[in-house]
Specification:
There is one protein chain. This protein has 254 residues and is of the alpha/beta class. The protein has one domain (2-209, 227-251): P-loop containing nucleotide triphosphate hydrolases (Rossmann fold, 3-Layer(aba) Sandwich). It has helices at residues 40-48, 87-92, 102-115, 131-143, 161-178, 189-195, 226-244; strands spanning 2-11, 14-24, 29-33, 55-60, 63-64, 72-75, 149-153, 181-185, 198-203, 208-214. The strands form two sheets. It has a six-stranded mixed sheet, with helices on both faces. A hairpin with a 2-residue loop joins strand 4 (55-60) and strand 5. It is globular, with a radius of gyration of 19 Å.
Length: 254
C-alpha cells in the first residue's frame, strides 16, 4: 500500500536519511523504533507530505505522494488543539476543505468523537481536557477524513504510564474498528511490540533501516510472557548492534 524506495534526505552536509526503504501493507500496523536522530520523524514527515525535499520515491496506492492530504492523517506528540475552539470544532476543522455536505461532515465528526470515547465533551475546550482526552481528540481529528493511513509521531510520549497503557489499548481498538494502516514512531520497545504487526529498526549516521522484525505474537499481547520478553531482547540487541557498528563516514557524506 505504502512504498518508500531509495529515500535520502539531506540538511546541508547532514544526511538525515540515506537510501531508506519501507513497506506498509493495507491495514498493517507498523512501528518504527530507533535512537534519537535516526530519522524516524523525518521519514514520517516525508510520508505525510510536510516535506518534499528528498531523493527517491514514496508512493501510496501506487501514486507518488505530493503535499498533504486527508488520505494521510497525522498525530503528533502534542495534541495541537486550537485553544479557542471547542472539541467539536477542533475535529471539524480537518474537514473544512473536504468535498462533503454539511450533514456528512457533522455525521463524520460525531462518529469519530464516539469512536474515541469523548461523547458528551463536544463543547469542552482544550483547557478542560486531560492529556489523554486531548490526545484522543487529536486522533479523532486525524481520522475524521477517513485516511488510508494514519501516521503517529510519539503520540503517547508525553503521557503518564497508566494513561499511556490505556491509550495503547485504545489505539488497538481504533485500528481494528477502522481497518486503517498505521505507522507509529516511538522510543518505547515494549509499546512497539504490544501494538505492531511489524517493527522497523532504524539507525543514525546516516539514518537508515537496519532491520524489519515481524511480530507474530497472538493478540491481545501479554507483556509478561516469555515470547514477549524474547522479542523485546531481540529488538534491544538490534538497537545495541546499531550503536556498535556505524557506516564509514565516506560512504554517506556529500
Amino acid at each position: 500500500m505504502l512504498e518508500a524506495r531509495n529515500v535520502t534526505r539531506r540538511f546541508g552536509d547532514f544526511v538525515a536519511l540515506h537510501d531508506t526503504a519501507l513497506d506498509v501493507g493495507e491495514g498493517e500496523f507498523v512501528t518504527i523504533v530507533g535512537a534519537s536522530g535516526c530519522g524516524k520523524t523525518t521519514l514520517l514527515r516525508l510520508i505525510a507530505g510536510l516535506d518534499q525535499d528528498y531523493t527517491g520515491e514514496i508512493t501510496l496506492n501506487g501514486q507518488r505522494i505530493v503535499g498533504t492530504s486527508l488520505e494521510r492523517g497525522i498525530v503528533f506528540q502534542e495534541p495541537r488543539l486550537l485553544p479557542w475552539l471547542d472539541l467539536w470544532d477542533n475535529i471539524a476543522i480537518a474537514l473544512d476543505n473536504a468535498p462533503l455536505s454539511n450533514t456528512a461532515k457533522k455525521e463524520a465528526v460525531a462518529a469519530q468523537i464516539a469512536l474515541v470515547g469523548l461523547t458528551g465533551f463536544e463543547r469542552a475546550y482544550p483547557s478542560a481536557l486531560s492529556g489523554g482526552m486531548a490526545q484522543r481528540a487529536a486522533i479523532a481529528r486525524a481520522l475524521v477524513g477517513h485516511p488510508s493511513i494514519l501516521l503517529l509521531d510519539e503520540p503517547l510520549g508525553a503521557l503518564d504510564a497508566i494513561t499511556r497503557m490505556r491509550l495503547q489499548e485504545e489505539l488497538l481498538r481504533i485500528w481494528r474498528h477502522e481497518g486503517v494502516s498505521m505507522i507509529l514512531v516511538t522510543h518505547d520497545v515494549e509499546e512497539a511490540i504490544f501494538l505492531s504487526k511489524k517493527i522497523v529498526v532504524m539507525d543514525s549516521r546516516p539514518g537508515r533501516v537496519t532491520a524489519n522484525i515481524a511480530v507474530d505474537l497472538p493478540m491481545p499481547r501479554d507483556r509478561s510472557s516469555a515470547d514477549f520478553g524474547a522479542l523485546k531482547r531481540k529488538i534491544f540487541d538490534a538497537l545495541h548492534d546499531n550503536a556498535a557498528v556505524r557506516l564509514p563516514e565516506a560512504e554517506y557524506a556529500i
